[in-house]
Amino acid sequence: MGAVDELLARHRAGLAGPSSRFDAVDTPRPRLKLAVLTCMDARIKLFDVLGLRHGDVHILRNAGGLATDDAMRSLLLSQHSLGTREIMVIQHTDCGLHRLRDADLAGRIEATTGHRVAFEFGGFDDVDDSVRSSVGRLRSAPGLVGPRDAIRGFVYDVSAGTLHEVE
Amino acid sequence: MGAVDELLARHRAGLAGPSSRFDAVDTPRPRLKLAVLTCMDARIKLFDVLGLRHGDVHILRNAGGLATDDAMRSLLLSQHSLGTREIMVIQHTDCGLHRLRDADLAGRIEATTGHRVAFEFGGFDDVDDSVRSSVGRLRSAPGLVGPRDAIRGFVYDVSAGTLHEVE
Fold first, then answer.
1. How many contacts (CB atoms, under 8 Å) link A and B?
2. What is the pLDDT of residue B19?
3. According to CATH, what is the number of the domain B30-166?
4. pTM of the entire structure?
5. Above 60 in pLDDT, residue A81?
6. How far does A22 lie from chain B, in Å, by closest CA?
């Protein structure tokens, strides 16, 4: 059985279970008017890290938690269609992008698949600097609303489970 | 107090609380070798929907759960640096992209901020078709590994809490 089938079985078991783990929310507009941009990393259980309730925030996740063009697309929609006003960027320790070099990953992809892909993967040497870079990009991005200090950056420690703010 | 401060207070309360809500996982490689691509929507509590455990899967989220270039960047890293092999695309009912027209949103952004942005936001008229389109793009994407049927698409019903697979 593949991983998807395993998770579909868990999904059905959850639906059939006695606990009411599903709180219906009847609006797509996030209650806290906040969008959180973080990494895809499997160790960031964001609802627990931030004590989120169903319907509280938009959650954007990509490799690194970087302020990419696609994150901008999502944030513009989040703010102008769905009413969010604050943005929280959370990158983390032990990220797969730490010290990653584009040429190394592209070489690995070519060796495995025969395809040469041209991507800037977004590797970085210092996670605090990477957070500052993403926050800076969002603060100067045309089309986003709100004061600069409504966009804040953090690093999540995946070993300790703690957050620290990047000034 | 802003929304970020509210969540930082919840984070601190969680750390101080009696329950052990944090399970340390010492590898960035997802245990189930699966990446899940879904929407940023505030009503998708993915850990509960799929019965996820800490460290199980990569989670990618953007507006719509679309297979964008940035999702491709993340998936290439997920597969070739961190060992995932299956991909699950989950879009959902009542999405902010449903029936969205680029010109309407761009007009709203310009009216609010004075900036004219040029984005394809990814609006769609039928969510099943949108899932098929994203799954199709990933199945034909150069650089991804694994058989075509290791990439599967679903729609999550945000009212009922149920998933259905798109064939």
1. 248
2. 46
3. 3.40.1050.10
4. 0.94
5. yes
6. 7
Looking from the CA of A99 toward its CB, the CA atoms found within 13 Å total 2
What's the pLDDT tens digit per position in B17-35? 654 455 668 889 999 999 9
Give yes or no for a contact between A86 and A139, defined as CB atoms under 8 angstroms apart. no
ipTM of the complex: 0.94
Instruction: Domain ranges for chain B, please list them.
Output: 30-166
CA triple A82-A83-A84, angle to 5 deg: 105
Task: Report pLDDT for B163.
Answer: 93
Q: Give helix B102-113 / helix A69-80 axis angle, nearest 10°.
A: 80
Q: Which amino acid is at A158?
A: V
Residues of chain B in contact with residue A76, where contact means CB-CB under 8 angstroms, are 105, 109, 117, 119, 121
Q: Are B135 and B89 in contact (CB under 8 A)?
A: yes
**Residue contact B97–A76, C-beta within 8 A:** no
Provide, rounded to the nearest whole percent, the portion of chain B with pLDDT above 90: 74
Residue A20 scores a pLDDT above 80? no
Of A63, A65, A76, A70, which Cα lies nearest the Cα of A36?
A65
